[in-house]
Design brief:
By secondary structure, the protein is α+β, with helices and mostly antiparallel strands. The protein is 17% helix and 56% strand. A hairpin with a 2-residue loop joins strand 8 and strand 9.
Length: 167
């Protein structure tokens, strides 16, 4: 009887352990990498003499965030793109589709570095930009920077955004 109880205890332990491991790989931790981007959610705005830039980020589901980004100059939209952050097969990608650029095809940038307040996406094969960085400065501000090389010269553009509202 003691031997049966011992075997039953071992089997129960193994069954519980297997189920806990299965939940870790099939549950919430599966999308842990993209959760680091949760602070992007919201309506972000940047005003300058050149125009007004807006990025509106929202969480779509456990593995995806979506955004629209546009620049308005004197009531005309001079730039428009859609963006998605997606976690696929353990990697996170920033997928951008800019109107009238790249033959209207999406371009993917892979998350190469992340800290709680910094996200770095890169695509060395893209013409410009090859690198996109989002840096959370505070709860209501972030600094976005795009960089790369154009005609052999390093170029960077920065956008200090203020959060107008949460989405």
């Amino acid at each position: 009887m003691n031997q049966r109880l011992f075997i039953l205890s071992i089997m129960t332990f193994l069954f519980v352990s297997c189920n806990e491991n299965k939940q870790e790989t099939q549950g919430k931790p599966l999308y842990a990498k993209i959760k680091t981007a949760g602070w992007l959610s919201g309506n972000w705005h940047h005003s300058s003499e050149e125009g007004n830039a807006t990025e509106q980020w929202r969480r779509v589901n456990d593995s995806t965030y979506a955004a629209e980004s546009f620049i308005i100059v004197k009531n005309d939209t001079v730039f428009y793109e859609t963006m998605h952050l997606e976690q696929r097969a353990g990697s996170v990608y920033c997928i951008i589709n800019a109107k009238e650029q790249n033959k209207n095809e999406a371009v993917s940038f892979k998350l190469t570095s992340s800290e709680p307040d910094i996200l770095v996406f890169e695509n060395p094969q893209h013409d410009f930009p090859t690198k996109i960085v989002y840096n959370k400065i505070g709860e209501d501000s972030l600094f976005a920077e795009i960089s790369g090389t154009i005609n052999g010269k390093e170029r960077k553009e920065g956008f200090p955004f203020k959060k107008l509202s949460s989405l």
